[in-house]
Amino acid sequence: MIAGLLTADIAGGASNLLLIMMFTFCGVLAGPDAMPGFWIFMYRINPFTYIIESFMGTSLGNAPMYCADNEFIPFTALNGSTCGEYASDFLS
Length: 92
Prior knowledge:
ABC2_TM, transmembrane, ABC-2 type transporter transmembrane domain-containing protein
């Protein structure tokens, strides 16, 4: 990338812009459902999308789920069911 541009400053700015766009559209900050129109194309062609997906799938694929009192997004299970029973449809 640096050899294709006139100065190192321009190349550094261009590569920073490219990395920011790759991190923004990889699906961590906003999922594909939240991206309108053209930007879903950026999600699909982004290599970081598939890298993050493979890391998360490999590391969390068969991990057990535990419900704790200090969750990031707490919710109350309905009808006296446990946390695992309530979230089982979402997790499957």
